[in-house]
Amino acid sequence: MLTKRELADRILVQEHFAQEHLPGALTSQQEAQLTDEILSLLKQKDACLVAHYYTDPILQALAEKSGGCVADSLEMARFGSQHPASTLLVAGVRFMGETAKILSPEKRVLMPTLEATCSLDLGCPVDEFSAFCDQYPDHEVVVYANTSAAVKARADWVVTSSIALRVVEHLADQGKKIIWAPDKHLGDYVRQKTGAEMLLWDGACIVHEEFKAKGLQELKKVYPEAAILVHPESPDTVVEMADVVGSTSQLIRAAATLPNRMFIVATDRGIFYKMQQAAPGKVLIEAPTGGTGATCRSCAHCPWMAMNGLENLRDVLLRGDQEIQVSTNLIERARLPLQRMLDFPVSS
Ligand code: SF4
Known about the structure:
This protein has 16 helices and 12 strands. The protein has helices spanning 4-18, 28-44, 57-65, 73-82, 94-103, 119-122, 126-134, 149-154, 164-173, 184-194, 213-222, 236-239, 248-257, 272-278, 310-319, 328-343, and strands at 47-52, 69-71, 87-91, 108-110, 139-144, 157-159, 177-181, 198-200, 227-230, 244-245, 262-266, 283-286. Helix content is 45%, strand content 14%. Helix 2 (28-44) runs parallel beside helix 15 (310-319), helix 4 (73-82) packs parallel to helix 5 (94-103) and helix 9 (164-173) packs across helix 10 (184-194). By secondary structure, the protein is an alpha/beta fold. The protein binds iron/sulfur cluster. Residues 54, 93, 118-120, 146, 205-207, 268, 302, 304-305 line the site of iron/sulfur cluster (SF4). It is an enzyme of class 2 (transferase).
């Protein structure tokens, strides 16, 4: 039985599909032409392409080929801020473009489409979230990177899934109580691991929430030698079955370093491009999702990430529209909690 929130999320995704926002299929000749065109436009426009692990492998390959980067949201923004290009072209979802803008306010930040968003960002509107925080003034506000610039500006800390445990542990050691937003599964995982006193916002990722423990158990029976890699935005029943729980970068590292030859991977299937590069010769299998339901067919791929394609990427370079705008005031306020994370000692 779906909750009201899950149903609303599904309707939201269906609306996007219904409006045909997804790029159409291209022939290999069209792909090659567009790739050449984009490579030359990137040079002409002094632009650098940064792509997220969950985007189409064609875009990830293009980012690498053009001297850009493929990474998680924070690394994308960090790479962009250190790159000499005056324009950053961000293939991903909107909060990633905003994070890039916050760390590089002097640069123009473009995206293939500004309509690519995220269920975590959508499920945490700043007015509601701010009113919630106001009720608990003695709590430290920790938000996940998958939030709008306005929500980041309301927070004391911004964290990614790779650093969330360490930051919350650090705060709990100081006796701090925490408001966590927006992902309830990741929040619950962090709470269990750290024992911190945490109030959780009720948000979820529509992709990771679809992974199912029952299907995973059945798949594990077929491939008992496979290690299970799980992103902590997944439900706790799936996380409990994991050999490794971690961020996108941590899961890629695990596939490369664990001795197993086979992995069942519970995160967006876009990650397979970089994971296979890091672990050549190893077998990667998608973790099972909910399958075909009454309202939509669930799959391990984000519908908003899928809105990034070669054509709209070329178009935005030609037209220069789809630019991320964040006010100076918001940039200044959102930068503080982001910087706190960037300055947090990595090896603590
Ligand atoms: S995969 Fe989930 S968390 Fe990532 S952008 Fe899509 S909806 Fe948001």
